[in-house]
UniProtKB/TrEMBL annotation, chains A, B:
Belongs to the peptidase M24B family. It comes from Artemia franciscana. Residues 43-146 form the Creatinase N-terminal domain. Its cofactor is Mn(2+). This is Xaa-Pro aminopeptidase 1.
Amino acid sequence: MVKRTSQILRNLRKLMKNLAFVPETLHAYIVPGFDSHHNEYLSPRDKRRDYITGFTGSSGYAVITENQACLWTDGRYFLQAVQEMDENWTLMKEGTAESVSYTEWIGKNLPAGARIGADPWLVTHSSWENLENDVNKYGQELVAVDKNLVDAIWEDRPGVDVYPIQPLEIYYTGRTWKSKVREVIQKIKAEKAACYIVTTLDDIAWLLNLRGSDIPYNPLFFSFVVVCPDGRLHLFVDSDKVTVAVRQHLHLEPGSFVEIDIRESGAEGIALDVKVELHAYEELKDFIHSMVGTTDQGQFWFSPFCSQSIVSVIPKSRRLCKTSPITLMKNVKNPVELQGILESHIRDGAALCEFFSWLEQTVDSSEVDELTAVEKSREFRSSYENFVGLSFSTIASSGPNGAFVHYKPKEETCRKLSREEMFLLDSGAHYKDGTTDVTRTVHLGVPTDFQRECYTRVLKGHIAIRNTVCPVKTKGNQLDCLARIHLWNVGLDYNHGTGHGVGHYLNVHEDPIGIHRRPYPEDPGLDVGMVISNEPGYYQEGGFGIRIENLVHVVAASTNYNCGKFVTFEDLTFVPHQRKLIDPGLLTSDEVSYIDSYHTLCREKVGALLRSLGKTEALKWLIRETEPLG
Amino acid sequence: MVKRTSQILRNLRKLMKNLAFVPETLHAYIVPGFDSHHNEYLSPRDKRRDYITGFTGSSGYAVITENQACLWTDGRYFLQAVQEMDENWTLMKEGTAESVSYTEWIGKNLPAGARIGADPWLVTHSSWENLENDVNKYGQELVAVDKNLVDAIWEDRPGVDVYPIQPLEIYYTGRTWKSKVREVIQKIKAEKAACYIVTTLDDIAWLLNLRGSDIPYNPLFFSFVVVCPDGRLHLFVDSDKVTVAVRQHLHLEPGSFVEIDIRESGAEGIALDVKVELHAYEELKDFIHSMVGTTDQGQFWFSPFCSQSIVSVIPKSRRLCKTSPITLMKNVKNPVELQGILESHIRDGAALCEFFSWLEQTVDSSEVDELTAVEKSREFRSSYENFVGLSFSTIASSGPNGAFVHYKPKEETCRKLSREEMFLLDSGAHYKDGTTDVTRTVHLGVPTDFQRECYTRVLKGHIAIRNTVCPVKTKGNQLDCLARIHLWNVGLDYNHGTGHGVGHYLNVHEDPIGIHRRPYPEDPGLDVGMVISNEPGYYQEGGFGIRIENLVHVVAASTNYNCGKFVTFEDLTFVPHQRKLIDPGLLTSDEVSYIDSYHTLCREKVGALLRSLGKTEALKWLIRETEPLG
């Protein structure tokens, strides 16, 4: 549906010249698709780029000049952008041979001396620096516009919802928030820094053992944290979200119960006391500004993803821009987190066995389409213990829809599920003890030889990753080709990464670890306790899509020789791979053994749960689907 | 041997305060180990860092302050640096947990406001920008010191040798220099640039079909080139090196024979005439400076490896810093170059068969040591057609010496070759039709089971790379793990890259292509016609070293399906892999077939040459060593 934007653009262009809003007339205004925390998913009131362009894709920049309005996005969204934007907007295609970046376009289309405005809250510090460099190359100037111009013209902008924050008990987290904060303080001290400013919301949620509901699919709450080496932790958050339970959890109530972390009983246990001080969410910048004035020792540490607006109040000589100390702590799961993740996967697997067993029985007799599949898979999951909600928007795609990697079923595109087509389900949920993300591809009728060959080659890549033994700290990028070589050998490939980090009842995409074609400069490399997805695929345009995804965790490998420390993966996901899609003739004996032993684990772990819950049909389905191949 | 540097440092520190040499007193002076062209190997008069420190390793930076003198280098050279430097120098170890970079050290050890000097000829533009950023972070200033202070105090500095430049005939190059220049001009025009400034010596040698002898092991000559879109090519070179043959080749003589490039017979053939203008080597900077003043259109294009000194005369708004347009042209070999490379490898393989056959017969009866092996392998090579010289310093290592990856035999460390130890020979040569680089590891007695297992696993990695099928433009970094997984599986690894680009009778290390653990941001990805090495290894400290290296070239792959264009590799090197070191029980049937067919090719190609030359002993050795495994 096309959005009419003429009036919106007229209003915006007026503000670009209004000195009550901008320090000087702007020649261009950049509207990025980000919020102040660089979140992957945006709350409705942060969808500024969607509001002015009409375009609702997950990736894209808008640039408005006096006479032009352009949107940059990538190949996934070309069609959608054309469908959603009116004639005011020009689509600028990224990643094509002729494509120019938006800074290059601005540089070449506006004169030297032009002033390019942007809201520094919506641009990370590292992006701002690059942007400024690019703009300066053309003799132009990047202007920080503190009042967001889109907000100023957005009449029906959604309000702020107040969702209460929830403490997550030590039974699930395995570690007190104070112990985590103390470890962060050690890292701050090692850097001789004045503080660490936490702006990434899953860092805050993980650090404080709190969860929220401010963002779709991510259990986060809007906030900032400043950790000081003296033990003070400043939490900037809307006080309406801070319930009595949260106050007790953070030891803000007199006589609050103090959790003891048994792992801290030694020297660390008698460490520095950590005290939380609450501030309003909006006060962070003033707080940092005044802290700069009152402390004269140490640098202010922030991550490259920190908003430029915050960084701008710190003098250059006192900036320490460096990967968050919390990122790696969060990536490496502790034994309690891992146990919870494993248990949540067994429940999740049981729900999926129910779903696939139900689907097989229902597909002939009644109308099952992609949207029904989305709803039904949610329904099965939601009956299990600790279920909180979905961890991302379910991808359920039948036949040719499966060839769109990021397909989401809608009324207009929704296909009926049938015995004639392949069906791909990529779905996951948050449980209080873990986050899941699993993809299975099935054929409810008779697959073609080509479909079986493709499926089996994808499976070979999936097994190759699972069984990799590699030196600790190997970056995921270095392993990516192992998932592809069996497809490459016959001239096939897939156009997405092979794996991403996954949080513990947190974001389903947890950077910077994973298995990607492109290097991730911040990737710390694989280490014991990390959780990532293993999801190669193959997509036949107009035909079908195949993806096979398990979550795996990194474990120590035992090897014949020991030239350093080696690691390998173990599966966390336990859902059978459809046997009829596997061509055993293409598998090595090691691969057959792996599948058979994986299926035995599915029976043992998920089968036991289904049996104990009396889910006989699903159990029967599971037993049949896990018969040995060999 | 320790070098005494007290007087040298006193002299240098005087100059750091002498306003005839520096614009203001310097607090520190940086001496990098590079020359004005960022060459890998330095001519003796460019070894400034060696002169002031005594340290002769290939990698390292020296920093001199009023009271301190420090050298930064990496783990390969810690021992050597300690042995070569006197008490004036502090070794700063790179790549250790406590290591600080030299800019960090300067930042923390000198006050804000300190002036840090360096010769901008010896620092590339991209390094200079990073250096300036780093220095500015600490409130310090980077000062370009135009007169090199080391040169000013270096009394016995070697003079300039005048080696004549040699034209390389079209029979070898397959393409006229004018045709190459015209292609560069097209690229300059596509960028709307005013010119391209060529500072990389192998770019110049390749572009003009000329070779020189100014640098050890690299057939290059000191020069700069400026290519202008109007067809003028300005060559800055010592006129004493420009012989009549070179003048004729460059069509500078009246009535010079004009080469016709048959591939240009079409539209391209009636293109722009290209004219060379000669200038003195030292005139480049003035030339650029005056060109900036006389042209007002277009940017000055240079590569990130261009010296800062040159870039400094170009106003920022007119700089275009971007990968050399010549790099990719040079990386992708034309059919004539490839044919020459293949033929030179057959001769090189014959020489190595002679060497190994000789070694086997001689090892018991007379004293053969590593230095003899170096000399003898050179001797065999030098008797073959088109031999010019070695392409790098031969690595010949016996037993435990093999565990040092970059080992070079010297009198002090030289071991006798024997039937008790493994022997590794990594060597190569320039022929007028191609450059070779090959490593073979042999055991002249009875290898242990562990040695055979390690050798076979290295070989499996070598075969995996050779037989990879992957999408065109796959970056070498993405394939690196294929060479390692068979070692990783048992807890072993090797601590170097797997492959590097190789020139056509040019540098044996030709960036930016190759197969590396770390990503090379400039790597254009694999394409048909590229030549790289394939050289996994394994090193057992105190025991032995194994490396197996062939050069391979990228060819189009034929695949069952065609989801895009796929490529694979073919071997260029034809020297047998020692059969007694191979454990066939560890090989798959595909791997055995590969070895047998590779050995058949060795017999066919190298065997035929040995037969025609009547080299009966070497031929007998080759036939025996290429018996089928299967």
